[in-house]
2-methylcitrate dehydratase (Rhodopseudomonas faecalis), 507 residues
Amino acid sequence: MKLHSVRTRKSADHLPRTEQLAWKIAEVAADPVAVEPEVVEMIGNRIIDNAAVAAASLARRPVASARAQAVAHPFQPGATVFGLPLDRRVSPEWAAWANGVAVRELDFHDTYLAADYSHPGDNIPPILAVAQHCGLGGAALVRGLATGYEIQVDLVTGICLHEHKIDHIAHLGPSAAAGIGAALGLAPEIIYQAVQQALHVTTTTRQSRKGEISSWKAFAPAFAGKMAVEAVDRVMRGEGAPSPAWEGEDGFIAWMLGGPNAEYRVPLPEKGEPKRAILDTYTKEHSAEYQSQALIDLARRMGPVLRERTPDLSKVRSIVIHTSHHTHYVIGTGANDPQKMDPKASRETLDHSIMYIFAVALEDGGWHHERSYAPERAAKPATVALWHKIATVEDPEWTRRYHSQDPKEKAFGARVVIALEDGSTIEDEIAVADAHPLGRRPFARPQYVAKFRALADGIITQAEQDRFLELIDRLPTLTPDELGSLSFAVEPSRLGSVPRRGIFDRS
């Protein structure tokens, strides 16, 4: 890997293309280096993971809404949409949209945390949709996904968006565009322009994850994927983009990030170096924001110990979660969001309240993607009472470990102190989630398959599950026709309904 310095340049400096971040990303994307077997294996795992959480979300209103928009744009050859018959195709950007929402709705797929945070699996829907529409085979898809993950992880490693209140999809648009370009075997010149166009149109504020969080949290990455597809198409037709997008004196860094004096250092593979970044990412065992993963595991570990002291949890006086800056200020009491303590808050808001999540996990001894968010569960008086006794504080050591570049030291956990009314305390800590590569039960192919089977149970037939998983086993050698069926179909009754009509609905 090579670190690239990225900073604002005045227009009069005439920064050569070859020195611009977008060009360096394009060169990485266009590099035909072979994809290593362990990377291929993990790409298959993440396609399974995306399909699992999409199956569980099919009937939810935001997913049904996005799917209704997509089916209003039929297209041949087109791309598949989760849940629909495999021969029912829509325009690829709309397939990316519908599938992206299905993947993101439950906040239940993979993650990467560094200078910023991301869900790299959001690259899969747009890259797969274009691969299906353009008649690509499995090898091209693998090459594109390895690239999308690589660029996403490298940008997240080098550039913090959160501190400037920019939503993390500003890294996703460029990575998806780069991945699409790699899958299609496009020239660096085209990828260069598409990456910049995607950055320009996917830079949005972080309010989508602040206050009363709405369904836009699921739509936002799908929007980035849709914009990436359109950006590549536009540039393939000979159009350009705002340039240089990152370094320009009126560009991304100058006005959206650290300003004219800021310098960022972005790692990128050198020519001929394999794209391995997907191996640095990790998925979720629980349907909740990633920083809560380890704390759910800690809660189910501490619960039995607490009940040995007192079966009556009303005897808990306080619970203090000592954690990183990020966890405290994004999903903890440091966010100063009253909605995070509101029993009537939206599911998306509760998903970003570690106080609520820890209380429920402590009471229930685990977590469920539907039951744990049910309105009646959130309104349970005993839960509300316990929930409101929980606070977070930033611990500099946990912040340091959160930002550590040493994978063996990097941590997303916390130390929890439970104080009882009798004056005694219970204390425990956890560094990483059990499912993390360094956790107690790291996820590998069997765990991904088990997650898929569990979430697809009662939604996707056993035969359809088997067909989908068999394709994953042969991913790099899939023919275009086989890749075109890399989705799943369900009975119409499993798809939910959209109670309201929109502009795209036909009479």
User: Anything to note?
Assistant: The first strand starts at residue 2 and ends at 7. The two ends are 55 Å apart (CA to CA). Strands lie at 2-7, 74-79, 112-113, 117-118, 263-268, 316-323, 390-394, 414-420, 425-430. The domain at 291-430 is CATH 3.30.1330.120 (60s Ribosomal Protein L30; Chain: A;).
